[in-house]
């Protein structure tokens, strides 16, 4: 069984590496988008599905990372690679600040306070015209030649997301990850076995913010633009949907969810302008019948021994 | 009056009054949201869509009936229409979902709001719609040093307390109100004494949505009825409910007051960044009262 | 070892704990009894830092631990189980206990070593001692009620405590499970030398294993003494039996 | 590890579904891809662009198309979100291989797609986004603006307002790029044309603000001579309603760009305020030329409503695309662009030209004031004066200087 899984994983990696050789440019572009949204959703799921923190406005960090990198690239003379590192750091810092304010609250209250704070960040970016270009955004950001082409951007996204997924996976399997999942299941119990819950949650938020920032940087590389809409709450909702759709207690779930949403959006919109209607209906059906998400459903179905009840 | 003017200039006073009429709409919508949150525990994201549908229904009724009668009919008909829509969604979908995680419900209702957004476009089309202000409320009254105050806003100021008192009566003095209060605290117990909890929830849900429709119908004459009018409102309504304390109707009133007033007075203090004041108010409130100003039913 | 001095906690006017006193010596098994709503669980929450007392003090090994947060209390080697089952329900039994051991060994900030390579022996030893070793790979939500209660105790043991607080360890258990649990508690006390504070409604269990008993009524300590002292105490009879002259049990 | 297997099966089937998704176009046609917002308040304008475009395309195709090929188009709803719009534009270019892109009311999307069009070398017709940057600072060979921009609108308004006796101006508007740009353009040009003019104050509200009364009381208290309101979309109607309810329209004259336009006045019916100054690029009842009447009749027969300014934009874009290819003689993008530069076509509002230097369509502007008209169930623009393009358009030098920056 294990070897079969290994073979599957290697086949997947080879498929992803060879993708630009066989598919036209558009599909390479869509694949890059899936990778970056997959990373964004996974970074959210790190705190949502594994940390039990209701991070309602995750996209603030995605946008912060993107703007951080975009501003470094357009307004300063540093090497673009420096910008790519600064972006996630800005996101992590912002995540720390927002986390320090919100962490005292729990669940829905945490989420709502986060939405208000996030909306403030959005308003600042939206209003600070001289720095951020206001609602028009920043366009035509030039990235290094190596990663400027569609294939280059794809490979860059593939390497970065692959590395990020690996790191996040590692963290989840580490003692820190164990503690985090413990906190999700039962914060009071976690305190009582000697875990400083708030501090661990805060660290998780910072890590999550950092990787959201990485996803933001990838957006800059893939689409060479940034917009204030990247920090608007509706996008955060969509990312949350990606997590739940794929399965928020699974590692691969959010990636699958991201792939589903991106593909459905592209696929349905070629047929009808009412794609939101169909997307909404598909989502309703999935949430209605598969409460643990698509991947969660398969996991339940094929591993009855570890079935999670109530 | 002159005595008051020594403390507050006529401009500030009129700003406060205008803020209050905005408060009324926010309160009506947010109280419905709060009711649903408190009793059913559903964070209803498509509450905003219902508000929009209420406004569109008001438009349809007004343009079919015409004149002042159309307006009054719309004021009753549109919320009832919205109530029927919500009854269908509750019976068809939500009654199976009460035990789900909140976050699932949020996303489920978000999905419904996507569907409703497009359905409204299919039914009513893309053009801006406008509901005329009824004859009785046209024009304005000079208030506070002659600054004009629209008569319709006076009507709104009257409607606010009416709705608040009606809600108070409903929640505290009627059987359904008492049952729903009990159900909010302990669902199983209410079920155990032989009450059909499912229908109690349906009723509360419809009442909450009725309020969203009423808000939409009331706001319709003051704005252009357009697609997407739900977007900004729903976040504001949620913040108000959170600020006031989940499920607490008086909290919704207090939250709406704070929200409406910080918005209108913020403009006086710092016009360029008037937009951030209500958000700042929410942050300040939640920092000092993490579970809202008044007692939450959660 | 543990002294509680006139501890008070009020919830919106209701005095849940009102001047509770308790004195526990090393190696003892102490039971707290009292009718429902007497404030036993609140008392435990106050000792372990989940709630902050309004007044009064808690000393552990002559050190003031009043109002310290739970994770610090835990580091002083006080562990507890909960009345309502409180385990990490999406994780396996093994992981549940392992987290507890990891937390005690301050390894929770380790981000990159796979947990499956850490503290395996220690975790297995604890699972062995409570008899859950066979179920190590089960998701804890799928366990029977009794097993979950035992898992609770196992998690508490993960913190390598000197002082163990058990909140109704046998509540809801079937008869044979209760027996197993009693054995477990006795073992912990005898073999590992733990000091144990527990509350329980099952009087048989209380009188069979405890060294001393503390009786709480309406948030206050009525008496703390040996089983014999408590059994025929008038106030206790008042509280439990409405003032008859019959000794308890 | 079964889940990995299932996971891959699932993913492959989704990808497969996506790959077999058919092309939206038939072969051997000229393909036009439209990315625009068809959700939310903006739809009131974008629907007219599309319908105007459709009208012209159907006429062209009925006559046998261009170069023996039919013009085909497909739409994508970007929902006013630039990231979605951009990925849709990429889909149209890379997968559908469109010959021409057009669309969008959202300046953010327009700029992003314009940047893409430049890289992919696809002609892009901006239909209703009004950012000055589109052909200014960010302008390039492949982008065409078929609509006025904020600078043009501001200059046209300034030309008309400079003749009025007002001195003390108050500025207010939607607090976003469009509002500020249009207000700045009016004020800067007004000061240039009439140095006595001064700004005594300003107020800005968030986009989509539902209640304007507080702002209006603030303005009334300040007692300016004239107010310039820089709003867009639903804000236009909302403000006029509030202006009527508070009596602002009777006390202080104010100007709104597109305030006299059908899109603003029709929804309000007879209840719109009278005496509001406005500018518009198109009025279906003015000028009363046969060409205009013919277009209005045609549009009205097809869609049962009067055309708005955006309908004219869509209508003319289709004709320019058709004539561009006809003149180029082949479906070749470079030749097409060359052909369009300087091209003049007859239109409902008289001959319209695409300026060679910056690819801006030269549109006339109508300055008027709202009044009742017994012929219609809504208010119309009266006392219309035409501001011809040459009187207000920025010169080629001015635009090209922006590009160099």
Helix content of chain A: over 70%
Give the N-to-C terminal Cα separation of chain B.
Answer: 44 Å
Strand order of the largest sheet of chain B: 1-4
Derived from helix and strand composition plus strand pairing, the structural class of chain A reads mainly alpha
Main sheet specs of chain B: 2 strands, antiparallel
**Greatest contact pair?**
A-D, 52 and 49 residues
Helix content of chain B: over 70%
Total strand segments of chain B: 4
Tally of DSSP helical segments of chain B = 12
CA radius of gyration of chain B is: 19 Å
β-sheet strand percentage of chain B: under 5%
Extended strand count of chain A: 0
Architecture blueprint of SSEs:
The complex is a heterotetramer of chains A (310), B (298), C (249) and D (405).
Chain A: H1 2-22, H2 25-48, H3 59-75, H4 80-102, H5 107-127, H6 129-132, H7 150-173, H8 175-185, H9 187-192, H10 197-223, H11 233-246, H12 253-269, H13 275-289, H14 293-302
Helix pairs in contact in A: 2-7, 2-10, 2-11, 2-12, 3-4, 3-10, 4-10, 7-8, 7-10, 8-10, 11-12, 11-14, 12-13
Chain B: H1 2-5, H2 10-40, H3 47-65, H4 67-92, H5 102-124, E1 129-130, E2 140-143, E3 147-150, H6 151-173, H7 175-185, H8 187-192, H9 197-219, E4 224-225, H10 230-244, H11 249-269, H12 277-288
Antiparallel strand pairs in B: 1-4, 2-3
Helix pairs in contact in B: 2-6, 2-9, 2-10, 2-11, 3-4, 3-5, 3-9, 3-10, 4-9, 6-7, 7-9, 10-11, 10-12, 11-12
Chain D: H1 2-19, E1 30-36, H2 43-62, E2 71-77, H3 82-95, E3 100-103, H4 107-120, E4 124-126, E5 143-145, H5 150-161, E6 168-174, H6 177-193, E7 198-205, H7 213-222, E8 226-230, H8 234-245, H9 248-251, E9 254-257, H10 262-265, E10 277-280, H11 290-303, H12 309-328, H13 333-340, E11 344-345, E12 352-353, E13 365-371, E14 380-387, H14 389-392, H15 396-404
Parallel strand pairs in D: 1-2, 1-3, 3-4, 4-5, 6-7, 6-8, 8-9, 9-10
Antiparallel strand pairs in D: 10-13, 11-12, 13-14
Helix pairs in contact in D: 2-12, 3-4, 5-6, 12-13
